[in-house]
Amino acid sequence: MKKAMLVVMFVLAVGGLVMAQNATSPVDVLGAHNNNGRGCAGCHQPHSGAFGSGQKGAADSGSYALWGQDASPLYGATIAFGDDGSFTEVLPSSISTGSAEVGGILLCLSCHDGAVTAKNMMANVSYEQRIGLLTNTAYGSQPIPTLLGNDGTTASNYTNDHPVGQKATVRVGNGLVNTAGVLSVTPGTPYAQFVANYGWPALAPGKWSAPTGTTAAGLPYVLCTTCHNQHVMTVYTSTAASQIAADGGGKFYNTFFFVNGPYNPNINNVANTNAPSTTQFCRQCHFGEANEANNTNNIKTVFQ
Fold first, then answer.
1. 87 near 160, Cβ under 8 Å?
2. pTM value?
């Protein structure tokens, strides 16, 4: 009887591990970016750029990712992010500059800015909250805004938004190494142990693009697309190059808000001997607050 119980417990434990690596989505993974039925063409207009989607502005009809939105009010704008606006970012003056700030910040704000642009197509409410996917009762009952600079506080308020841009550089150390804007991890270091316990999905060099920008001095800096994958809202897929908790790659994890890594805010009963994925995701950059930076190496991540 005891052996049978042990076998059942083992199967359940392994089954839980497998489930934690094979998350699925209850909705189309593009989620809010299906744009009320317009789909991919809501951002990537296959013909005529912004003109092809009924937007104005010749400046937006260039070839960058077949962009179909009107970003013209944002060109050259200065946005003061976080900490009383101390992280100022001057947006590119053109969609064709080739800067990482174009695809990583400017084009995101062409939809998500609520301060500089006169109007926007959004309802300014989190999609997951609106359709009932966000079930954690720790969240308040008020709408969660999706327009930056238009959150119900003061006009043009970006100071309570996470900094992005060339002043928001990524801290290195403890085994996280920067080489001319490309990040790597030194084996056997505290950061390597963090990668083994969670991963580094937002910072690991991508197959098709870099997750961060690079300053003239060679320093990596945070983009909107460092923390967010605009193409998949609900599921994160690990790769061999960017594994999650040494999973080998090819596994699936719950995520919310287009976060670029395992991030599940619906788990609200994590034991204090483990760490929630929501906390671990932030520790990729804010490593000084990680367990591994404080000589605590055996705190595993609860993903779902």
1. no
2. 0.90
